[in-house]
Amino acid sequence: MKTFIASAKRARWGQFLAGKRRREILERLNHGLPYIHELATEVPGEQDFPMELERLLKARGAGPTCHVIVDGLRIDGRELPLLEALNAVCMHASGAVLSCLPGRLAYHKPQSPGRGIILERPPR
């Protein structure tokens, strides 16, 4: 996920997510993710539902599982089947990030209400 974070905040987010201050980052997901806007595509409202999102993400190369970063759910920090993770975070009011391809593809669900965002870095 940290490859999608603006450079001024990247080190801090990476450090906090991996350490004792993870809770702070999870709470910040509820107020916005400082992502690089050039790497983001807002999901159209009619496609911002689990099954459609799964199709969109798989079309971009996502595999069957993803890593979950979410505030307020026990699935935080776990690797889950993509559709199961999408169902959980789409029904949850808090912010979340699903890392589908580390450093290349992620889905950010902002705190409700708000449209989801696909974060994608082209392969090198």
Extended strand count = 6
What fraction, in percent, of the residue positions are helical? 25-40%
Biggest sheet features: 6 strands, antiparallel
Please trace the helix and strand order, writing H or E for each element: HHEHEEHEEE
Mean pLDDT across every amino acid position: 87
Task: List descriptors.
about 120 residues, alpha+beta, 6-stranded antiparallel beta sheet, 4 helices
Summarize the structure.
With 124 residues, this protein is α+β, with helices and mostly antiparallel strands. It has helices at residues 7-18, 22-28, 50-59, 82-90, and strands at 40-42, 65-70, 79-81, 96-101, 105-109, 117-120.
Polypeptide structure, described:
There is one protein chain. By secondary structure, this protein is an alpha+beta fold. It has one domain (2-120). The protein is 31% helix and 22% strand. The chain contains four helices and six strands; from the N terminus they run H-H-E-H-E-E-H-E-E-E. The chain has helices at residues 7-18, 22-28, 50-59, 82-90, and strands spanning 40-42, 65-70, 79-81, 96-101, 105-109, 117-120. A six-stranded antiparallel beta sheet has the order 1-6-5-4-2-3. The chain starts with 6 loop residues before the first helix and ends with a strand.
